What we know:
The chain has helices spanning 5-14, 32-39, 74-82, 92-99; strands spanning 21-24, 47-54, 60-67, 70-72, 87-89, 117-120, 129-132, 138-142, 154-156, 160-162. The termini are far apart. The chain has 175 residues and is α+β, with helices and mostly antiparallel strands. The strands form 3 sheets. A 5-stranded mixed beta sheet has the order 5-2-3-6-9. Strands 1-8-7 form a 3-stranded antiparallel beta sheet, with no helix packed on it. It has a two-stranded antiparallel sheet with strand order 4-10. It has one domain (19-160): YbaK/aminoacyl-tRNA synthetase-associated domain (YbaK protein), CATH 3.90.960. A hairpin with a 5-residue loop joins β7 and β8. 37% of the residues are buried.
Amino acid sequence: MTTDPDRDVLEHALAGRGGYELFPCDPALADTAAFCAAYGFDPADSANTIVVVGKSVPPVYAACVVLATHRLDVNRTVRARLGTRKASFASPDETRDLTGQQIGGVTAFGLPAGLPLWVDAAVMERERIVLGGGSRSWKVLAPPSILLTVVGVEVMEGLASPAPSRPEGVASTGG
């Protein structure tokens, strides 16, 4: 019998949190747009976990969960909550060093102790969400209430806002 260490870690992190389904995915299709297109999921149900950094010495970090159809307000809301003059998205290297997870697979479950987890209120309005599974090989399908099982989680109004729609055929510059 073969074991999947990524799945084992994810199942351990999800133990006792209520109902969920694990969804395997091709790691090359783990980024939100590619995943939704390949597997038929609505981007409005995709909840991305994004690590942000406040530019200070030492840097201050938080993880934010926002819908793929929304844009995280890094320059105002996040920066103010971090208490720093500047804030940005953490780099892929910073994200991996801090969480042990790669962008495209970052999950809200099993984050380092002391890392704040902020969830945009719009996420909680969905019937079901698709979350990263801690690796680019897994996604978690669950009701948004599963996020409330994370110790210290804060649901926040205005953490993100709906992204402006783009004319058909115009590509997004974000990931």
